[in-house]
Predict the structure.
Amino acid sequence: MVEKRIVKIAGFAALSLLIGCSVLATPASSQSLTDRFKSLFGGSKSDEPAQQQAPAVSNEPQVEENCPPVTIRAGASTYSVAAPGKQAVGNDVRYQASITKTARDCTKANGEITARIGIQGRVIAGPAGAPTSVEVPLRVAVVQGGVSEKVIATKAYKTTVEMGEGENVPFLLVADGLVYPVPAGAVADSYIFYIGFDPQLVSAEKPKPARKKK
């Protein structure tokens, strides 16, 4: 049992380090919607935007080509949860979530832009034992960059990840419904989509029981 626990702790540390390096290596990258993350926004034909089935009309949603890039906000790239009353470090970590890929698209109508941000990530069970399901809290914001950043719009999202007996489980969230006014002229070039974990969204929740080990 001791030997298995040592192997599990070492594996979790290695995976955490690998995720950290990956995030640091590409902090501002967003995967291509067409090439690398196409399935994220895939669906039935009934889900396709209206302008794909009919000629574009001035008051109908249109694809916005100047869709801001996606950046993972510093300090919010991972979400670690500890055993009750403990700090999320070492053997006291129950699970850790991270973001691995992103994608986005934007449509414009009636002076507003509606964005969809695709977020793909992973939840890793920690040495303290992960619960059978975990809730992953995320926040998306559109920000006007510059010397003094200005938040234009922000929205919170949560998704539940069923861990089961898994030690390393992927998750996928399409954060839709983020709406903001069409920026004027060149101002659009300074807009950024910030994404990250927001622990405050689950701070008041009771901890779920740990998964029973066989």
Notes: The helical segments are 2-25. The radius of gyration is 20 Å. Strands lie at 62-63, 70-72, 78-82, 93-109, 112-125, 133-144, 150-162, 168-181, 191-197. The chain is about 10% helix and 40% strand.
